[in-house]
């Protein structure tokens, strides 16, 4: 896999954007800003997916992460009160010794990974002749693809192949994933109910009802 | 980009200047792995250093996304070198996205319940199970 020309320019632009936005996600004081920086990081990574030829995954990333999960995050940020952090009255990081210890070990990990492990592994994987050949074959097969309605772009078979792979090699995990999502829906609804809603559903322990009533909390709906 | 080569010649005394420039002009698999590793490290740093539990969840999303980038990069590598079932990386990524969505839903439900009961989202104040 060797990118060239404009592909490499886009690679550097989007990877630097992803890393900067990721850093700002972790460092932003306001949680809403964090969420927006995370969205831009996810979009940059989606652009890298397109560079790698995974258009379907890029679309899923935009739709599910940016359109679904991040909206959920923004709702929850709006529901909880983080005013103290935003106005600078509360620290946003843990105590300094914890932060320093974490950063030292992470810097070690990053250094070993980036300087030693990945280059060594990549050198072991390199098969220059084979890669050039594969790139040429890919180029040729892309030229043979049908052109789209505009006549400019070409229609790839990528999504079709991912779908075939998903339903042949991973049919059972696919079904299990749907059950997992069902469990997640029901679980989050159960977790986020208020006491009043639990009483309305007649789904609360009588002891809990007694103690909350004796504490003077109004539980009548 | 050729006008940058004196800079790389300074940076690498021996004959590695041209290879460094070449690797910048033609990024390969290892560059994607480096980007993914850096994103992963940033995410772990967020989990370990922030006090706000919502930002910790966002850092976890960053970590999962770095893993996705690794999977997609290796999927492309296997497509180019003719590995067996090269699209399994993309299939795995779909499942990681599913699990991330489920995890975010459950986690944020817990955060809502916690905030309702304890009036705090600082992880250093949520220590009810600490002995």
Label this structure with key terms.
heterodimer, A: mainly alpha, Four Helix Bundle (Hemerythrin (Met), subunit A), 0% strand, extended, B: 131 residues
- List segments of chain A where confidence is low: pLDDT < 50 over at least 5 consecutive residues: none
Mean pLDDT over the residues of chain A: 84
| General form of chain A | extended
Would you tell me the structural class of the helices and strands of chain B? mainly alpha
Strand % of chain B is: under 5%
Write a compact overview of the structure shown:
The complex is a heterodimer of chains A (about 220) and B (about 130). Chain A is mainly alpha-helical and about 220 residues long. Chain A has 10 helices and no strands.
Structure commentary:
The complex is a heterodimer of chains A (221) and B (131). Chain A is built from 10 helices and no strands. Chain A is mostly helical. Among the domains of chain A are: 1-92, Four Helix Bundle (Hemerythrin (Met), subunit A); 170-221, no CATH class. Chain A is extended and about 80 Å long. By secondary structure, chain B is mainly alpha-helical. Chain B contains 5 helices and no strands. Chain B has helices at 5-11, 17-25, 29-49, 53-81, 88-118. In chain B, helix 1 crosses helix 2 and helix 4 runs antiparallel to helix 5. The termini of chain B are far apart. At the A-B interface, helix 1, helix 2, helix 3, helix 5 and helix 6 of A face helix 3, helix 4 and helix 5 of B.
What is the fold's blueprint, element by element?
The complex is a heterodimer of chains A (about 220) and B (about 130).
Chain A: H1 6-27, H2 31-51, H3 55-79, H4 83-86, H5 96-125, H6 128-143, H7 158-168, H8 171-191, H9 195-200, H10 206-214
Helix pairs in contact in A: 1-2, 2-3
Chain B: H1 5-11, H2 17-25, H3 29-49, H4 53-81, H5 88-118
Helix pairs in contact in B: 1-2, 3-4, 4-5
């Amino acid at each position: 896999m060797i990118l060239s020309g404009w592909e490499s320019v886009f690679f550097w632009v989007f990877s630097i954007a992803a890393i900067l936005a990721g850093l700002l996600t972790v460092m932003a004081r306001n949680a809403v800003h964090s969420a927006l920086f995370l969205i831009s990081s996810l979009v940059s990574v989606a652009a890298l997916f397109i560079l790698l030829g995974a258009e379907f995954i890029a679309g899923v990333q935009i739709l599910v992460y940016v359109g679904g999960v991040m909206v959920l995050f923004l709702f929850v940020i709006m529901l909880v009160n983080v005013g103290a952090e935003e106005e600078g009255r509360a620290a946003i990081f843990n105590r300094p010794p914890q932060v320093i210890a974490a950063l030292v070990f992470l810097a070690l990990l990053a250094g070993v990974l980036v300087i030693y492990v990945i280059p060594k592994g990549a050198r072991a994987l390199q098969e220059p002749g084979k890669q050039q050949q594969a790139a040429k074959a890919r180029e040729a097969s892309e030229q043979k693809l049908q052109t789209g309605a505009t006549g400019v772009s070409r229609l790839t078979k990528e999504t079709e192949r991912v779908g075939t792979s998903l339903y042949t090699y991973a049919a059972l995990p696919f079904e299990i994933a749907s059950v997992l999502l069902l469990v997640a829906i029901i679980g989050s609804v159960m977790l986020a109910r208020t006491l009043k809603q639990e009483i309305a559903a007649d789904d609360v322990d009588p002891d809990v009802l007694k103690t909350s009533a004796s504490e003077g909390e109004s539980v009548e709906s | 980009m050729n006008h940058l080569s004196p800079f790389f010649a300074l940076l690498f005394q021996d004959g590695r200047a041209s290879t460094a420039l070449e690797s910048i002009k033609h990024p390969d698999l290892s560059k994607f792995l480096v980007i993914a590793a850096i994103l992963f490290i940033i995410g772990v740093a967020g989990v370990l250093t922030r006090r706000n539990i919502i930002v910790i969840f966002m850092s976890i999303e960053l970590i999962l996304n770095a893993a996705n980038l690794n999977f997609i990069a290796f999927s492309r590598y296997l497509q180019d070198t003719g590995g067996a079932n090269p699209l399994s990386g993309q299939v795995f990524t779909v499942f990681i996205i599913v699990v991330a969505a489920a995890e975010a839903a459950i986690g944020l439900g817990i955060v809502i319940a916690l905030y309702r009961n304890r009036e705090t989202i600082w992880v250093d104040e949520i220590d009810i199970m600490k002995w």
